[in-house]
Amino acid sequence: MSEHPSASPPATSGTPRFDERLSVPFWWYLPAIGVATLLGAEVHMGYPGIRSWIGYAITIPVFVVALFWLGRSRVRVAGGELQVGAARLPLRYVGRVETVPKERKQEALGPELDPTAYLLHRAWVGQVVRIEVTDPDDPTPYWIFSVRDAEGLAAALRR
């Protein structure tokens, strides 16, 4: 349960040490547009004239925006803190960093998961990282979240 001391004071501006957007795979947009088009076709068959295009005009943008919204979460190390989604943790309270491989993810998110832990899971990202919180005033024992480049995140947290 040790903290990772910083060799130099954290930067308050400039480029982040680590920045990753947990976006959905690009190919997901194609099936989403296909399903939205099918739903729009259902409306198209029921209404004549200009009203027939309302289904397409609504469903396709809604599906695209929904996928974009699902992939808007970020994992960042910048300005002396770790930011995962909307949550922030000062780097001085980052303890042990453990990469949970894809094969053990179900255990880590199921029977091993502490109900008071902070969780940000994205099913399309293979591995998760568990970070111990060393703040004595924080009731959260650890954060567990999806990240594609776990080694890059661990290196950024060690700096």
Question: What labels describe this entry?
Answer:
alpha+beta, DUF3093 domain-containing protein, DUF3093, disordered N terminus, 159 residues, transmembrane helix, 4 helices, 2 domains
What's the short story on this structure?
With 159 residues, the chain is α+β, with helices and mostly antiparallel strands.
Protein architecture, described:
There is one protein chain. This protein is an alpha+beta fold. The chain folds into two domains: 26-70; 75-158, no CATH class. Helix content is 31%, strand content 24%. The protein is built from four helices and eight strands. It has a four-stranded antiparallel beta sheet with strand order 1-2-3-4, with helices on one face. Strand 7 and strand 8 (142-146) form a beta hairpin. Helix 1 (29-46) runs antiparallel to helix 2 (54-70). The chain is elongated and about 65 Å long. The relative contact order is 0.20.
Quickly count the helices: 4
Number of strands: 8
As a percent range, the share of helical residues equals 25-40%
What is the N-to-C order of secondary-structure elements (H for helix, E for strand)? EHHEEEEHEEEH
Mean pLDDT across all amino acids: 85
The fraction of residues assigned to DSSP E strands is: 15-25%
Evaluate the radius of gyration: 21 Å
| Low-confidence residue ranges | 1-12
Number of domains: 2
